[in-house]
Amino acid sequence: MSSGNQWIFLAMACAASLYGGWRCIRYFAQARLLSDVPTSKIRSAAQGFTELYGVLEEGPEAELRGPLTGKPCLWWRYRIEAEQRNSKGESSWRTVEKGVSEGWFGLRDATGSCLIDPRGADVRPLTRDRWEGRQRHPRGAAPAPGLLGQLLGAPGNYRYTEERLQVGQPLYALGDFHSSGGGRQGLDIERAQAAVIREWKGDFAGLLTRFDSDGDGQLDEREWQRVRLAAQLEAEDRHRASSAAPTRHRLGKPAERQPFILSSYGEDELGGRLRWLAAGHGALCLGGALLGAWFYVQLGGL
After folding, report:
1. Average pLDDT over residues 147-172
2. Of 78, 85, 153, 262, which alpha carbon lies 20 to 30 A from 245's?
3. Residues sharing a CB contact under 8 Å with residue 270, sequence separation 6 or more, in sequence order
4. CA distances (Å), origin 269, targets 124, 150, 274, 276
5. CA-to-CA separations, 195 to 61, 220, 228, in angstroms, rounded
6. Helix, strand, coil % (nearest 5) of the chain?
């Protein structure tokens, strides 16, 4: 092997070691976090980063259907791959189309329900269909498993993958939890008053119509005092209306660099998978380091 090729392989080994080490640390940290965060009940969950476990239910939006199979679901993710062949006749697959739904859905446990915004989540669904066909977009559902499925889904130029979350399936959720309504929010009167005034300033002509009593086209100090008083009363009315509304719980992506996980697998199974992934990438890190050291020695580094 020439010296130039050895340098290339050394660089590749170092890159594999760094990548494996980074992924190992990340997966191990996620597995540790799963075991450290206690599972909460929806009704009594603390606000902020929270772990929930329950059963999937429909949300406020219309029923979804998988884009490739047409099957009803609460969430979907799909990928279409095209088969390619090189000059040697070797085949490989290239993704030509993919997508993921963003509609909200519900999670219920024994104490209540929570709406989930799946945008930005690491979703690990239980249901996954994969088959091949001759057309860019398949028609109808995925072939049934077994011999019949093999006959109907004969190998072709395209490979389809569709994953779904469906009503009644279990769901483990780790993300940012917030509740509104039910008298939960305290009133910061100065902030609420300022928000109302900013809203009214968006229609300044309407503000003048309501509070410019002398008709000079501007608001003097006495008129601004009336604006502030009216805004305070409006803020208090809005707070009372919000407090009278039923409590609503929502879970979404954390603002900080914390994981957002939605998984059909329980905490123990998911934690085990993450630890296996951490171990595999740790082995990649070690193997890359050893291989890099060997190439370094071959290049006369020691």
Report:
1. 76
2. 262
3. 34, 124, 172, 261, 263
4. 12, 30, 9, 11
5. 29, 20, 11
6. 40, 25, 35
